[in-house]
């Protein structure tokens, strides 16, 4: 005997919860099926993988009433960038700890990037338009984007079109020069993916990230008071308050398809079935279509595109336990984003090693931290650490990466190595095994030119609709991609509601 719903959401990560809450708010009978014992995905647990969850998009926070469910944000975060004996503090458009001329140039660069990201922001809260076989709505979307860019004025419009597909290396070299300030921007443009500062399209990635930062305003970020747990709690309450049911420890084994080749439900690993005309998957594109749906329901071209998607995760999470903080690092600092990379060259060198399946000797590092009963815990992200590491991710390889990360931090925070009492490394391969992330990729797939907008996750499967009727993608593999904005889930639910259950 199967249960019947209006919509089934696979996965209770933040995008799945957003999708469920929006569907339920529209009067749909919704069930969320989560494989793990708790909700939240990368935001779940006592030490969530995403340790710095920036703001849920304001449109979503307002639409779901997340403030009523306890979601509050602190003051906008600063970025502290350490490198080469320098400590640079970035507060929106203000850069401290650099030469006056560089600070002035950075302020002008930030102004331009903020304006350009604002022109793109309107595209983030709606389904991307189709170039081919599109209707009036697609034409209007393209026109609106064109008008937003044209509204920048002739000078800024030309400059935006000049730089948007270029790399962040050239942008920073031209505008502010290399160093810790440029390294912080380069980390923004590359973190989570397999692209370095010299990779084409990293300016577009930087603009996307600035456009989706949420409560702190374009280019400035805020994290929720009480951290990731507050985001998960508010989204769970919003979904349940609207009537959605959330079932944990309910791993989906396959998506059910009827004789007309339409998705009609799911079956769990224990054989339990749920039926619904709308199925929204928060899993990665490859897991959704190849593992849960099956290639027999796809044409050969779609299967080939899926198998060739760039999904090689490049970030390892390292928890460092410290007896006490080293000199030069205060408790107040740990409330901000801290980058350890002397310059863009170090970030590019780290990628060069990873491209060949090797560990970098000098990884670029981003971290935050918190006080514990035993001292302090730093949540560090080591970039770049390939999922497909040569020889596999053994304990020895994890320890090697932790030592290299500690060495990189020691160079700018002397004495930190002697304060460390232990570490725990979660490699991209661990993230793939634990969370079902294809390739251990945080964004479910590279945020690069051929996997963005109407090409995300691949041509023929954009606008959240998958090749099989009734099936939608609501996770980071859909437009506009990763980060903790909730936009893929919000947009996918809106598309499903618009379609009314029929493709």
Overall description:
The longest helix has 25 residues, at 100-124. The chain contains 16 helices and 17 strands. It is α/β, with parallel strands linked by helices. The protein has 3 domains: 3-72 and 228-309 and 442-499, 3-Layer(bba) Sandwich (FAD/NAD(P)-binding domain), CATH 3.50.50; 92-216, no CATH class; 315-435. Helices cover 36% and strands 17% of the residues. It has helices at residues 14-25, 58-63, 100-124, 136-150, 154-163, 168-175, 180-190, 202-211, 228-241, 285-293, 300-307, 344-355, 395-410, 416-419, 428-435, 487-499, and strands at residues 3-4, 7-10, 30-33, 79-83, 86-91, 94-96, 245-247, 252-257, 263-268, 273-275, 278-281, 315-322, 337-340, 364-372, 375-383, 420-426, 471-473. The strands form 3 sheets. The chain has an 8-stranded mixed beta sheet, with helices on both faces. A 5-stranded parallel beta sheet has the order 7-3-2-11-17, covered by helices on one side. Strands 1-10-9-8 form a 4-stranded mixed beta sheet.
Identify the notable features of this structure and list them briefly:
503 residues, 16 helices, alpha/beta, single chain, 17% strand, 8-stranded mixed sheet, FAD/NAD(P)-binding domain, 5-stranded parallel sheet
Task: Summarize the topology.
Blueprint: E1 3-4, E2 7-10, H1 14-25, E3 30-33, H2 58-63, E4 79-83, E5 86-91, E6 94-96, H3 100-124, H4 136-150, H5 154-163, H6 168-175, H7 180-190, H8 202-211, H9 228-241, E7 245-247, E8 252-257, E9 263-268, E10 273-275, E11 278-281, H10 285-293, H11 300-307, E12 315-322, E13 337-340, H12 344-355, E14 364-372, E15 375-383, H13 395-410, H14 416-419, E16 420-426, H15 428-435, E17 471-473, H16 487-499
Parallel strand pairs: 1-10, 2-3, 2-11, 3-7, 4-13, 11-17
Antiparallel strand pairs: 4-5, 5-6, 8-9, 9-10, 12-15, 12-16, 13-14, 14-15
Helix pairs in contact: 1-9, 1-16, 3-4, 3-8, 6-7, 7-8
